[in-house]
Amino acid sequence: MTSTDDRRIHSRDRALPHPPYRIPFLGDLWDLHVTDSSQWGWRGAQRYGGIYERNVLGARITYVSSPELVAEVNNEDRWAKFLGVPIRNLRAVAGDGLFTAHNSEPNWAKAHAILAPAFTQSSMRTYHDSMIESTDKLLQHWASREGSWCDVPADTSKLALDVIGRVAFGFDFETFSGSEPHELVVRFQRVLRYINRAAYSHPLVEATLFRPQRDQHREDIAVIHRLVDDIVASRQSSSGGGDLLDLMLSSVDPVTGEPLSSENIRNQILTFLVAGQETSAGVMAFALHFLSTHSDVVDKVRAEFETVCPDGELTFDRVAKLRYLRQVVDETLRLWPVAPGYFRKARGDTFLGSHPFEAGEWVFVVLLQLHRNDAWGANADEFDPDRWGRERRPADLANLYKPFGTGMRGCIGRQFAYHEILVTLASVVGHFELEPEPGYDLQVTESITLRPSDLRLRMTLRDAGGHQL
């Protein structure tokens, strides 16, 4: 509800559950976790309920995971997207790209209008063959290491990078053929690690204790910008490649008639590397972990594939028919949404439930808890793709499942991601038996996104009796 009477809303009147032993001036600083902030927020939601806060040096951080309250903050009339830490710090790299732009920045609407046609169903068809070819590189890579333990998150990251490089801007990062990672990749990954670590730090700490890392970070950003600018300049002087970069170079905003600037095109490419590569890679890795530990699910995936693709060919139109595999992906994203939450900001003075929020105050939606709400069933912490069957799916799905964000600022590339992930998982399960490492207990590492830590699987090519894709 919004304020409709003469009362002035004051945030000081808001009293929320919070960690015990709050210290004057320092607040809940003792309870601060920097390297696993999303999982830290999830643990707090388990302890303190569907809305709670932490106070760090006077800054109030509100966490929301109750479906009813999440539905309220998803209301676009009262709440808007907010760039919270560390996404706000990512602007030093990706500027006003789709992922990091403020709502008020004109380039967001312009880029969204220009790029939206690239993610329609008809456009998706043009990317399918590239996704198949990139997946074949991964299969060959694992086949050459048959019997060895494979670093799954590292390899799915290579695959996703190969896909986005080819589809977005026609660039080959040589992820599976090069002896060393491409310089852009090395520097970009180091930038993401620094942003995540420094997100809750203080400028004085970074300027003293972490000065070498800060200086390296600044150098990395400058080099990343130069490398991507070179890619854009090279395309500007050559014929079009029929990819997203070509679309950005040749199209104008249908409303204003203006094209994107070279700087904004660079920002969009860097956005694709974060939102289009890091996220897909993480989902694939989590899904392969679950598949390696649930042989019954693998059997169902293979049976479905043999029904949908009796000749073993995974064509574009057949991917959408892999409905059970889609349930595997949805269940993976439910348990481990690789973008583990999002920030929302009050457009005006308002109430969230019975709690007053002043205009401009923000909250963080804790997807790791929302996605495990009791509405998902008594076994909400367990991996069970069958819960996505029509008879078991929660009625309030729209407010219980938000792995791609919400509203007009939700992920523009969600169908691209689903298609890429389905192609990869169907191909891997068709070619390999997946053996989990004995004693491995899933641990999750955080940068801008989530991914399994130290996940290794042994890939064994299926025998001649198995169905080959």
Task: Give a description of the structure.
Helices cover 46% and strands 11% of the residues. It has 17 helices and 12 strands. A 5-stranded mixed β-sheet has the order 1-2-8-5-3, with helices on both faces. It has a 3-stranded antiparallel β-sheet with strand order 4-12-9. A two-stranded antiparallel sheet has the order 6-7. α6 runs antiparallel to α11, α7 packs across α9 and α11 crosses α14.
Secondary-structure element order, N to C: HEEHEHHHEHHHHHHHHHEEEEHHHEEEE
Q: What is the annotated CATH architecture of one domain?
A: 2-Layer Sandwich
The CATH class designation of one domain is: Alpha Beta
The residue-averaged pLDDT reads 91
CATH fold assignment of one domain: Uridine Diphospho-n-acetylenolpyruvylglucosamine Reductase, domain 2
Roughly what fraction of the amino acids lie in strands? 5-15%
Helix segment count? 17
**What is Rg?**
23 Å
Q: Structural class per helix/strand content?
A: alpha+beta
**Helix content range:** 40-55%
Alpha-carbon distance between the two ends: 54 Å
> How can the largest sheet be summarized?
5 strands, mixed
Give the beta-strand count: 12
Outline the low-pLDDT stretches: 464-469
**Overall 3D geometry?**
globular
